[in-house]
Structures are given as C-alpha cells and as structure tokens.
Amino acid sequence: MSDLENVAQQLARHKFKLTRQRHAVIDVLTDARSPMTPANVFESAQRQCPDLGLATVYRTLEILEELSLIRRVHLDEHCEGFALSATSHGHHAICMQCNRVVEFTGCDISQVMASAARQTGFHIEEHWLELMGMCNDCYQS
Amino acid sequence: MSDLENVAQQLARHKFKLTRQRHAVIDVLTDARSPMTPANVFESAQRQCPDLGLATVYRTLEILEELSLIRRVHLDEHCEGFALSATSHGHHAICMQCNRVVEFTGCDISQVMASAARQTGFHIEEHWLELMGMCNDCYQS
DNA sequence: GTGACTGCAAATAATTTGCATTACA
DNA sequence: TGTAATGCAAATTATTTGCAGTCAC
Fold first, then answer.
1. A75 touches strand C (CB under 7 A)
2. pTM of the model
3. Residue of A94, A138, B31, B41 with fewest CB within 10 Å of its CB?
4. pLDDT tens digit string along B65-114?
5. B132 to A93, A112, B82, B135: CA distances (angstroms)
C-alpha cells in the first residue's frame, strides 16, 4: 500500500475528507527527504494546488500529526519540522549535512529507562529519541 | 559549588558580565522545577529585577545555552522550554502531570545506535533523548 | 574609563481565528 | 444536500533588531 493510500484510509476512518489541498500537502510530505516546516510545505504544495492557503497547511498538519501520520522533528537548535512517519513507533535519524531524515525502528532502551527511573524516581511511560549524524552519501563525499 | 557560582564562573571564563538581569534569570532557572519558556522566565525574573526587558531574557537564554548551562527541552506537542543543565551530557525526564524536569545521566544507547546505523546507513554522531512519565509524587497521588 | 549590556519600541516572523463561500462524501 | 473544509485577512503571539543610554569590571 502506498503512503498516500495509507493516509487516505486513515483520514476516512476518522471521518476526515480528502480534499485537493490535503492531497497536495500529503504528496509533498511523501516526497520530502528532509523535515519540512509549515512554510516549506506551503511553498511546495502550492505548485500542485495554486489556491492553497497557509492556514490550511497548518490545519492539515495538525490533523496528520493527531493521526500519527506525520511526526514532529526537533532540529538541533530551533525546533520544528514535520516528516512522514511510516510506523506507529519509529524514530528519526537526521543528517546534519543535508538534513535528510530516515526513520528507524527497534529502539530497545529499556536499560537506559531503568537506570533513569532509578536515578529520578520517575515512572517512565514514553520516550523521545532522535539521532544526528551523517547519511552515507554525505559521509562519502 | 552552587549552581549560581558555577554559572558565574562559566560566564567569567568566557568574558561575559554577570549583570543584575542575568543574575535574576539564572536564579529563576535554578529554582525552576519545570522547563520555562522565555515568557515564563521574564515574568518570574521581573519580581527580582523590575526593570528587566524581555529582549534581555532572550539574549541571556541564548548565551546560557551556548555555554551549555541550560538545555532546550522539547515538550510533547509544542517545543520549547529551558531547564538548567547540571552536567555536560545529561538528558531530561519530564513529568507529564506536573511538568517537573529532572536530569539524569548515563545513557548507554550504543546498541540502539548500532542498530539504527545498520538500518539507515548513517554515521551517528549525536543523540537526543527525553523521557516522559510521572514523577514519584504525582504517581503516588 | 570603556566596551559590553541594557530597555524600549519598532520590525519581523510565526501561528491562530472568524467568517462568508465552496466542495467533498 | 449538508456539513466539513477552505481562503483570505485580521488578530495574536513569539522573536529579533537598532539605538541611545547605563553599568560591571
């Protein structure tokens, strides 16, 4: 199933309509190789949907995030950026050179969580992990 | 050595002056039990330093972050918040109920990093980890 | 004494909202 | 067809900057 089909299905399941505008936003995020700000998305999606409004981009991103179809990416200094999320629980690796984002799965950090729980007295429920480095392409050049 | 002394020392080392305003900002962050936005800091620090300007808060936070004396905390939905960082490499555990932030150390995620590197082809250099859960006080009530 | 630091106000950027109109299901 | 979704413009919020005056070292 393609990304678009998946998103369309999820939208329908939650009674959201698949409008031209949302379609354009989803296409942009699907093709994106790096996290995109709302403004980035707007600019790109406008090519496909010239009468798109920036407010709609914000509203659409909000819905997609709510449905976990995209994930917020916090970049080094300033936050913000959105990237398509393929799996229900994945994390992102971000290239510090070209900004490319790749999702990876399988984060067994149970030992770290146990250690943190011991130190802080917290009962950990969620975690948030992002790796920064260089993608292979950038590394080789 | 107290937090303040530590910060003062670091500022001096880098030829920054310890002004009344900076002192107030540092005090606020030292006493803070949860991450604070620039606006939060401004409001609190004004009690101690009535003629403080918001722009100064932004400028001070920028310096403190540059010196790794505070750390940016990305909250669940919206980003942003700053918290004092005691160690050069620590992570934060955040209580989802009361927002309290506690730093912990010792994050051996080398296995996760190796696995991610294998999956993505990335050469990982840095990581960013935050745990969310409930602090013991909130858990017991 | 003097250069770094400040407050203020204005500029800029980012995000949200109200509302009349449009278009998906 | 009915209602959710839209564009636009205005409102709000967040952040940055220029500059004349001030203060820590």
1. no
2. 0.79
3. B31
4. 898 888 887 765 565 567 766 555 678 888 888 878 888 887 778 888 88
5. 20, 13, 16, 9
